[in-house]
Amino acid sequence: MASTSREPTDELATAVGQYVLGELSLARAAEEAGMSRWEFEELLEDAGFTSLYGPRTDDELQRELDVARDRDE
């Protein structure tokens, strides 16, 4: 497994912040940080953050349900 013990950079700090705030997906935040998705997820876990999957709010859930319903028609 790749090591995630790298020096913090402004790009990494920004990517973590935007991910935690829900502004970027896990994959997009990892890309912004210059890491693989798995390296970024490991870094988050090492820092005490839990990776977030799926909708984070009722509005996001509703949008996902609406999209799923439209695909079934």
Rounded average pLDDT: 80
Backbone structural class: mainly alpha
Shape: elongated
Question: How helical, in percent, are the residues?
Answer: 55-70%
- Overall domain count: 1
Order of helices and strands: HHHH
**Number of distinct beta strands:** 0
Q: Characterize the main sheet.
A: none
> How many H/I helices?
4
| Spans where pLDDT lies below 50 across 5 or more residues | none
In brief, what are we looking at here?
The chain is mostly helical.
Main attributes of the structure:
4 helices, 73 residues, single chain, mainly alpha
Question: Would you write up a description of this structure?
Answer:
The chain has one domain (10-72). It has four helices and no strands. It is mainly alpha-helical. The chain starts with 9 loop residues before the first helix and ends with a helix. It is elongated and about 45 Å long. The model has no long low-confidence stretch (mean pLDDT 80). Helix 1 runs antiparallel to helix 2 (26-33). It has helices at residues 10-20, 26-33, 37-46, 58-72.
